[in-house]
Design goal:
about 190 residues; alpha/beta; 7-stranded mixed beta sheet; 6 helices; about 25% helix; globular
Amino acid sequence: MRITGGHAARRILKVPKGLAVRPTPDLVKQAVFNSLGPRVVGARVLELFAGSGALSLDCLSRGASSALCIEKSHKHAAFIQQNAGSIPNASLQVRTQDVFTALSQLASNGEQFNLILADPPYGEKNVNRRSESFAQRLLDDPNLPKLLAPGGRFILGHTKRDTLDIVPPWCEVKQLKHGDSVMRFLELGG
């Protein structure tokens, strides 16, 4: 797995062994960043379920001003810190805690981000029932919209077999599909 663009392009990132982390594939990352284009430059970035921190590190390599990674696992958070060394002078912060606890705390502090990225662990197939996945829980969380700065984007990854309900205030502006992965680009609706 590598950083796919920017001044640190092609630097290899370390990923924890085993099935506990499912990194966003490089081709999917490239498609996401091609779609975001100049929105990344100068952006404040929040990455949820950060795993290896690959999405945040790609943002920093492409000119984001700062990134905050939220990752529950201490082991995975250590990999993020180690990978941050791939980008000199990167303004990267890692919080080791539950994502939903962090969302509440960040909203209480009035924090806002231009880009919020999340490619959480995949949910089960949900035919004829509402999804209970982490992706759906993020869409349903009342604190997440408070964290998106005006004009910002929320990019949410999930599996094709996990049918999500896009609930207000979210409005989908784009969708990318690659293999089993779906990346949704969301904004706050009027």
